[in-house]
Q: What sequence folds into this?
């Protein structure tokens, strides 16, 4: 299996060095480059294959939110994992809406960071528990339910959609719907394509934004 190719983006040289050391200790991760600001990150992605960008959110010049938006537009296959000191402000939602597939705080343990990189590269999401709650809390004032936004999905894809929003893994979805994991993955890819979403975390955001989350 090819290693996950990672780009590090942070304006603090010392932190970038520490992150490189942590990631390169994992033989399944390759650090392609490390840069100190958003525009340099965009140029790296423009000319090199990058699987995951580990992105600081507050930087001089082009910030992490704007850089994320441009990188995900330029390279749809590249996933962005935001790493920041701040775990509870408006930038949480802004980064996810810009295309970030994960959001972790800088006190994340090394093993958890590496696991998050692999998860994001595999197409799942990584959100620190407090961050996930913040994202959902900021979206609770969504408009009334609009089920018509799911009209493009088949009935089975709608079931998969609902279970993703409920936080179920592919294995749990397969068990619930009596499907193989490969079949679940096929349905997930199809609904992401039809709804124009990047990954599972954006399915949850989409559901809250359109009032599709069922409350008990």
A:
């Amino acid at each position: 299996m090819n290693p996950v190719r990672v780009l590090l983006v942070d304006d603090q040289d010392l932190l970038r060095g520490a992150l490189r050391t942590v990631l390169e200790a994992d033989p399944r991760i390759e650090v392609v480059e490390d840069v100190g600001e958003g525009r340099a990150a965009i140029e790296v992605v423009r000319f090199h294959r990058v699987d995951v960008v580990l992105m600081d959110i507050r930087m001089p010049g082009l910030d992490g939110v704007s850089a994320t938006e441009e990188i995900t537009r330029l390279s749809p296959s590249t996933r962005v994992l935001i790493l920041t000191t701040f775990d509870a402000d408006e930038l949480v939602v802004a980064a996810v809406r810009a295309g970030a597939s994960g959001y972790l705080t800088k006190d994340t343990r090394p093993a958890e960071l590496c696991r998050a990189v692999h998860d994001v590269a595999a197409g799942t999401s990584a959100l620190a528990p407090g961050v996930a709650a913040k994202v959902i809390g900021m979206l609770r004032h969504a408009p009334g339910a609009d089920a018509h936004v799911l009209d493009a999905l088949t009935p089975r894809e709608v079931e998969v959609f609902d279970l993703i929003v409920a936080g179920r893994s592919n294995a749990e979805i397969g068990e619930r719907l009596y499907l193989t994991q490969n079949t679940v993955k096929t349905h997930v890819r199809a609904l992401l394509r039809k709804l124009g979403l990047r990954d599972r975390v954006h399915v949850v955001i989409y559901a809250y934004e359109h009032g599709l989350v069922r409350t008990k």
About this structure: Residues 192 and 208 are 16 Å apart (CA to CA).
